[in-house]
Amino acid sequence: MGSSIVPSIAEYPLIILFTTIGASFLISSADLVSMYLSIELQSFAVYILAAIYRNSESATSAGLKYFLLGALSSALILLGSSLIYAYTGLTNFEGIYMIASVSLQDSISNAVMLGVLIIGVGFLFKVAAAPFHN
What we know:
Elements: H1 12-28, H2 32-50, H3 57-88, H4 93-102, H5 106-126
Helix pairs in contact: 1-2, 2-3, 3-5
């Protein structure tokens, strides 16, 4: 007989609040650092929700796998952000766009494009988009 009882945890409203605040901060972020921190604030609550059924082996396994994939995607987002910062010296989105659009050196614009690509792959891992969900 399966356990179909929904767990009641007192911190559930707080978890939902963290997810909502993280999503709100992500929408209003204008900096690489605030973007990363808001993504992690939002993901923190989702990691807890993925493994909320402690007695279920499949829920525990899914929570651990989701946490490991989340760590990989966070590493990719940080790698792309650090690559952009290394070539531009800025973390502000508007400043990065200005330098990349008027840069006379192809190396800066190529590095920014590569950093944005790596951040995009990290976001796709974070939302488990196909084919990254495997």
